Amino acid sequence: MGKVSDVIDARLLELGIKGSKMCDDLGISRSTLTELRKGRASTLKAERAVQIAEYLGLSVEQLLGNEEKPAPESRNGLSIKEQKDIAKKVDAFMASLENEKDLMFDGDPASDEALEDLRRAITVGYEMARIKNREKYNPYKNKK
Q1: Long-range contact pairs involving 72-77 (C-beta distance under 8 Å, separation at least 24)
Q2: Cβ neighbours, 10 Å, residue 17
Q3: CA gap 81, 32 in Å, rounded
């Protein structure tokens, strides 16, 4: 495994995200990640590196293995633990929705794309609530 893929895989594990989901969210082919993992590719194009680094909450230098420590917080100011907690809550919520099998939009069953959009919206909602609660219940620690 190449160094870039080690950093990506470690960060995905920390965040509780699958590599295939990252690729789908970013609109990149899964083979990009596979080629890195198998050592058939060792670098990324600059724009792709920026895209992946931002998604993972890392700097490009960290992604490329030039810095040892992962970023303690993502762009939205949530810690890794908070991101994991939110991911678990969203997964549980989506699982309960999918178990219902009656989720409809305008009389049609929800498509995979609609479910993924719903997942993103719920994630954003949880993130915003976490940030607001942090400010409300601990205003002195989290002053702006």
Answers
A1: 76/127, 76/131, 77/131
A2: 17
A3: 28
Provide the residue-wise pLDDT of the chain in tens; the chain has 144 residues.
448 888 899 899 988 999 999 999 999 989 988 888 888 887 888 888 899 999 998 888 888 877 555 455 555 677 777 888 888 998 888 888 777 767 777 778 777 788 888 888 999 898 888 888 877 776 565 555
With tokens 């609530």, the residue in question is: 129
* CATH code that applies to domain 3-63: 1.10.260.40
Q: Write down the pTM of the prediction.
A: 0.46
Domain residue ranges of the chain, discontinuous segments joined by +: 3-63, 80-137
Nearest to 49 by CA among 80, 13, 7, 89: 7
Contact of 108 with 87, CB cutoff 8 Å: no
Rg (CA), the chain: 17
Write down the H helix ranges in 16-65: 19-26, 30-37, 46-56, 60-63
